[in-house]
Amino acid sequence: MWSKKERTGLKIAGYTFLVAILFAIYYLINQDIERKNQLIAMAGKELAHNKICMVGDVLKFKELDKIVIDGKHYWVCCPKCKVQLLHSHKKRFAVDPVTQKEVDKAEAFITQSPTMKERVLYFETSKNFELYKTKM
Questions:
Q1: What's the structural domain count of the chain?
Q2: Checking CA distances to 74, which of 19, 64, 93, 132 falls within 20 to 30 Å?
Q3: pLDDT single digits (tens) 4-40
């Protein structure tokens, strides 16, 4: 069987492991709360282009990669998105929800979707966004 020293060592290791797990859970919960608070603070405001993966149309909380195409700046979150953006003209454009016109994502007014807070909507102008808000 185990000696007294070995049992003490195992207990210490177990408690250390338990404390590490609890700290990790606390960190993840705290990070989630902070992220939700940031999303709430961004509601109804224009979002910085460098915070949006323009392929997935998703707000990101990490540093994104900039791609310059035809002198315009686009942002992506990963190499896969970079390839899609470079090779697909459609990925660089969105439809303005008010006018139904095609809008270049690099030049658009970008804001959160009112229903899915990490998703974004692209508008031709800030006035279109204001019209959209009044219709909601």
A1: 2
A2: 132
A3: 888 899 999 999 999 999 999 988 888 888 878 777 7
